[in-house]
Amino acid sequence: MVIGSLTDWKKDLFLNIKMEMKTDNDIMIEAKGLCVSFMVQRHGINNIKDFIITMGVKSPFEKSSVLRDLNLTVYKGECLGVMGRNGCGKSTLLRTIAGIMKPDKGSIKVNGVVAPLMALGVGLEPELSGYENIRLVGTLMGLSKKELKHSMGSIIEFSELTKDEIELQVKRYSSGMMARLAFSIAVATMPEILIIDEVLAVGDLGFRQKCANRINEIKDAGSTIIYVSHHLEEIKNICTRAIFMEDGRISLSGNVDEVCEYYKTHLDRKVATPTILA
Amino acid sequence: MTKFSKPSKFLALVFTLAMKTLKLRYKNSIFGFLWSMINPIIYLVIFTFVFGNVFSEIDRYPLYALTGLVFWIFFSTSTIQVIESIINSSGVLKSINIPTIAFPLSAQLAALISLFLSMIPFMILMFIFGLRLTWESLIFFPVLVLFTAFTFGVSLILTSFNVYFRDMQLAWGSFMPAIFYATPIAYTASLIPAKFIWVLKLNPLYHFIGALRHAFYYNTLPSLGEAGILLVVGLGPLAIGYWVFNRLEKGFVSQY
Fold first, then answer.
1. Helix crossing, B140-164 with B224-249: angle to 10°?
2. Is the CB of A116 inside 8 Å of chain B's CB atoms?
3. B167 near B251, Cβ under 8 Å?
4. Complex ipTM tops 0.95
5. Is A142 part of the contact surface with chain B (CB cutoff 8 Å)?
6. How far apart are CA B135 and CA B145, in angstroms?
7. Which residues pair with A115 in a beta bridge?
8. What is the pLDDT of residues B158-175, one digit of tens each?
9. How would you label A94-125 residue by residue, b for 16+ Cβ within 10 Å and e otherwise?
10. Residue A237: is its pLDDT beyond 60?
11. Which residues 143-172 of B have a C-beta within 8 angstroms of A?
12. Do B250 and A122 touch (CB under 8 A)?
């Protein structure tokens, strides 16, 4: 017991020191006044002629803002838990960090290569075998031929797929097997920033434990992780800090337990009235 | 900074995607690649039976028709596949930061590889029909580059608009037969009344098919004027296509 608490105490101290030592050089992600919006088609396009004439200058679509004046700083080695009700802008925030969506206003700086794990089985081709899919999705994730060759063994090993299974067409996989394959490819190389968007809920208990271990390894290697989940326990286990998002803004940022408590008391959906910027 | 700013990685991505497309196309089919040859051969048989007698003054008619058909098929399959390429990859594009253009490019590359593969059996067939290869035939390569540039430029415009309006893909399928008959594939331009020949010349495909026949049918080189037209008609649409794509790309993500 004594030893246990001592190490805990040491860990806390270490964490505190680490927290205080953060400098501007350690900033991995910095968002300032970030506004991101979607284009929505409110009443359809009346004619294609107008679209062509105003192409790129004026949009026939209306903008609906998702992120509104969001500020966020994530430091190197942090594991940030992101919580919030459905539709509050979590995925949009992740997409903006991954560079898929561009901000309308404000700025976002990302210092490093992002490995996004946004949805289950992205890029997996059902007709191809697991092995072929590793090469395909690996390339999509930005691995070079050399890196792929190098990490092929460890990807297969990590996915816990047997030799027969890896030769099988992916359409014959269960969703858990697909999740294992997808996760294994995403964490094959040590990404500088790893984004995980509620994708790990499908694997079996053993694999989830393994994922958690791997995430810790990645964290210990100095990578930064953004983790979206509705499982408070997962957030508590993995994350070092958490934010709670409401209506496109961060309403609370801080200690994991604190944010989890806040989440529990904010179960009523705050009805966001979509502002149309036109 | 993206993972694909390195040209070698970008090219590897385009190539991998193209190979995937080719692999998938003939998966689960017994005759696989052979099917891609059936379509032009059916056309060839129809042409020879229906028009063979009408156009009996055309020397080596089957060869004449086949040189047109093979490249027409290249044009039509390229455009059809590139049009769908972006929208079919929306799942990937909204989850991973990949340069969007990799998808239309890979579809075009796949069509080009298909063309080269189908050229092997078709060349044999062309030899049977009286093909002669001479030094002039080498003009095929630069002409093909320009033809591909033209095809890709047109497709890039279509695929960009197709993200917003799925009409493009539907409309293009309907337009295709019209373009086919507006191009001298089964007939020669000399059969068109002289006062309407300018209409034919407005069709870029007229120039490309003509130049490709220089290589495989007439065994002559295109004139300087013709070469100039090919350059403009090849690179112009490519430039316009890229410009349109760039302007429309920003809004793609909202449509996925």
1. 30
2. yes
3. no
4. no
5. yes
6. 18
7. A194
8. 999 999 888 888 899 999
9. bbbbbbbbebeebebebbeebbbbbbbbbbbb
10. yes
11. 164-165, 167
12. no
Local confidence band at A1 (pLDDT 50, 70, 90 cut-offs): very low
- Least confident interval from A41-55, A129-143, A206-220: A41-55
B170/B152: higher pLDDT:
B152
Confidence class of residue A2 from pLDDT cuts 50, 70 and 90? very low
Nearest beta carbon to residue B250 from set A102, A118, A123? A102
Span of A81-85, A189-193, A201-205, B89-93 with lowest mean pLDDT? A201-205
Pairing of strands A62-75, A27-40: antiparallel
- Among the partner-chain residues A55, A101, A141, the one whose CB lies closest to the CB of B248 is A55
Tally of helices (H runs) and strands (E runs) in chain B: 11, 0
Burial B54-86 (b: 16+ CB within 10 A, else e): ebeebeebbbbbbbbbbbbbbbbbbbbbbbbbb
CA gap B214, B222 in Å, rounded: 7
Q: What share of chain A is helix, strand, coil (3-state, %, to 5)?
A: 40, 25, 35
Q: Would the CB atoms of B164 and A51 count as touching at under 8 Å?
A: yes
- A95 close contact with B: CB closer than 8 A: yes
Q: What distance in Å separates residue B216's CA from the closest CA in chain A?
A: 38
| Burial class (CB within 10 angstroms; exposed 0-12, middle 13-18, buried 19+) of B149 | buried
Across the interface, which of A59, A116, A119 has its CB nearest the CB of B251?
A: A59
- pLDDT value of position A176: 82
Residue A54, pLDDT score: 61
How many Cβ atoms are within 10 Å of A255's Cβ, its own excluded? Answer: 12
Per-residue pLDDT of B228-241, as tens digits, reads 999 999 999 999 99
CA distance A195 to A213: 16
pLDDT score recorded for residue A229 = 87
Q: Name the residue among B4, B20, B92 with its Cβ closest to that of A142.
A: B4
The three-class DSSP label of residue A267 is coil
